[in-house]
Write a structure and sequence with these properties.
It is built from 10 helices and 12 strands. It is of the alpha/beta class. It is flat and about 60 Å long. The structure holds iron/sulfur cluster.
């Protein structure tokens, strides 16, 4: 049996940064109630770790921040947050820490730089935290990947900057760009997808020719894990492809002749992946 790990694997830089920050805040703010604004990552073990340490996740809604008392501390998640959220906490004299991922910060910087002079169109999913953050700025219009955009609300002769949610599927972004290009004359289109997700999708095209089984490790609630799984199925309709989160999900046969290629979503812990690899090695 051979096992190939498609790198990068495990947590992406954004999730790593957020987890490191949570651990630091836990030490610094020992006597406070710690809250995470939004979701830290789609990883059940991580959610359990937060629960065990009494760190609560708040719904991504600024009303949740208004309810907090002065014994609270807030960590803004990797997906970003609006400036209004910071203002609410400053007014309440509540300390906050920012785990916004570098890629998402770049989008927010672009929006805050341009929105007062050039309108922006944000391609995203309606209720995603990144979308809600983008829409908290004025002059930003949503192109929802399901419902598109209401063109009657736009001046179609104006120039627009187009950016997108970092985790969208390439096919959805291309469809949105094509649709926008048919309707608006002057578009300045920027691809603001996360390079780390793209790289993992690309790496699936380079798996070993002898591969018999492809394992995608990650939570079923993680959109980039699901996308990796779908990509593997599309690329290799004749190979066995499984999405698993732990050794408990291994309910298929593995034998000595198998060549196993493994990839993971961006919210998967390398320790969990190693545990799965060790378990598989024993299945001879
Ligand atoms: S997947 Fe990309 S954009 Fe999302 S947190 Fe990770 S590095 Fe940041």
């Amino acid at each position: 049996m051979e096992i190939e790990l498609l790198k990068p694997i495990g947590y992406c830089n954004g999730v790593k940064k957020a987890i490191d920050l949570v651990n630091q805040v836990k030490e610094i703010e020992k006597d406070k109630n710690i809250y995470i604004f939004g979701s830290l990552a789609h990883n059940e073990n991580l959610v359990k770790y937060l629960n065990d340490n009494n760190i609560k996740s708040l719904k991504y809604d600024i009303k949740e921040l208004e309810r907090l008392d002065s014994n609270s501390v807030v960590i803004f998640s990797a997906h970003g947050h609006s400036k209004i959220a910071e203002e609410i906490l400053r007014n309440k004299l509540i300390n906050y820490y920012d785990a916004t991922c570098f890629n998402i910060e770049r989008n927010n910087t672009l929006i805050s730089y341009y929105h007062s002079s050039i309108p922006l169109i944000f391609i995203g999913k309606e209720n995603h935290e990144e979308t809600l953050t983008a829409l908290s700025y004025s002059n930003v219009y949503l192109y929802d990947i399901t419902n598109k955009i209401d063109y009657s609300k736009l001046d179609l002769n104006k120039e627009y900057i187009v950016i997108n949610q970092t985790s969208l599927k390439e096919i959805d972004i291309i469809k949105a760009h094509n649709d926008l290009s048919k309707n608006i004359k002057k578009l300045n289109i920027l691809d603001t997808s996360c390079g780390l997700i793209k790289q993992r999708l690309e790496n699936l095209k380079k798996i070993n020719k002898s591969t018999t089984i492809i394992l995608i490790i990650g939570s079923k609630t993680s959109s980039n894990t699901i996308e990796l799984y779908n990509q593997a199925k599309r690329l290799y309709p004749n190979k066995k492809v499984y999405m698993i989160n732990s050794i408990n999900d291994i309910n298929f046969e593995i034998n000595d002749l198998d060549y196993i290629s493994i990839s993971s979503g961006c919210s998967s812990d390398i320790n969990d992946i190693n545990e799965i690899v060790e378990y598989i090695k024993k299945q001879k």
